[in-house]
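Q: I'm writing a short explainer about SURF1-like protein for a general audience and would like to include a description of its predicted shape. Could you first generate the structure from this sequence?
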Amino acid sequence: MARYIVPLIFGIAGIAVLVGLGVWQMQRLAWKEGILADIEARIAADPVELPAAPDPEGDRYLPVQVTGQVGDQALRVLVSQKQVGAGYRVISALDMGERRILLDRGFVKVGRDIPAPPQGEVTVTGNLHWPDDRNSSTPDNDVADNTWFARDLDQMAGVLDTEPLLVVARETSFSDDPLTPLPVDTSHIANDHLEYAITWFSLAAVWAVMTGYFLWRMRQSAKGEGT
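A: Of course. Here's the predicted structure. Afterward I'll give you a sentence or two in plain language.
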């Protein structure tokens, strides 16, 4: 009987560790879902006036309503949408009189013409955003060819002569066809904790089966030695 104690303890310890990791991931899942729910509620809140000095942390996703004239120049940021394909986010300046900011007008498929800006004053409801589009594999923006791979606000503001402040349109008072708004949401925020939990629980089950099989083989071997 003593020969079974060490592998049994080893098996139980392994199962406990793997189950513990799975439970921890489930706790992280609940925490992340709470954060996402809070962000979604903030995104969908009633719009307010544009703050005089927006804070990238405190005002992230803040819904705002802004009025001004859309500039003639449009920057193209290469993106891809599921079930739609490749296209561009179109970024223009919004001249509000005393302030000029960046306006993310929406998405247009590659090959479609970017429409001319609307004439006169327009109203846009959207969200403040400080996007983090760039990673280690993101190419440098090709400003000369007007092909952008990341919404680098400082660089865009320099080209369009605006504040490095971006409003991503959700609703507009004008038709910008074929552009369609591509509003801020939580889809870019990773939430893989359920997949991780399933992985750890699955490994715990495999460990339990392997432990049981190993003990069974030991018992069969002992029986063979006793005959």
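A: For your explainer, you could say: DSSP finds three helices and five strands in the chain.
Q: Perfect, that's easy to follow.
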